């Protein structure tokens, strides 16, 4: 399974928040409002990516990208964010350990296009 795992970063405006919020293991730290808070308070660029096995979706990844000491760092979360677990929301039967190597190979932590960031005025107030 892990060799066919891909991550497809979804632009902020296109994230299907209702779909993500239906995962039973979803936490407040993976919500649109919390990611907006991290963008406003930490300067984090939200990262929301669909996890695919072959061509079909098997879950989601949530985190944030920041620059530290000139390097881009993907946090899910990072120390100082006052944030507990983010990371994966996967379909039943999908093991995060089999998906993680795909994340490490992906380019999901690369800077996104400008439309991938939450609007600064609406980020913290959105659902």
Structure explained in plain terms:
Helices cover 20% and strands 28% of the residues. It contains three helices and five strands, in the order βααββββα. A hairpin with a 2-residue loop joins strand 3 and strand 4 (71-75). The termini are far apart. The longest helix has 11 residues, at 32-42. With 127 residues, it is of the alpha+beta class. Strands 1, 2, 3, 4 and 5 form a five-stranded antiparallel sheet that branches. The model is unreliable at 121-127 (pLDDT under 50). The chain has one domain (2-105).
Give the secondary structure arrangement, pairings included.
Elements lengths: L4 E5 L7 H5 L10 H11 L2 E9 L2 E13 L2 E5 L11 E4 L5 H10 L22
Antiparallel strand pairs: 1-2, 2-3, 3-4, 3-5
Provide key terms for this protein.
127 residues, alpha+beta, 3 helices
Compact overview of the structure:
The chain has three helices and five strands. It is of the alpha+beta class and 127 residues long.
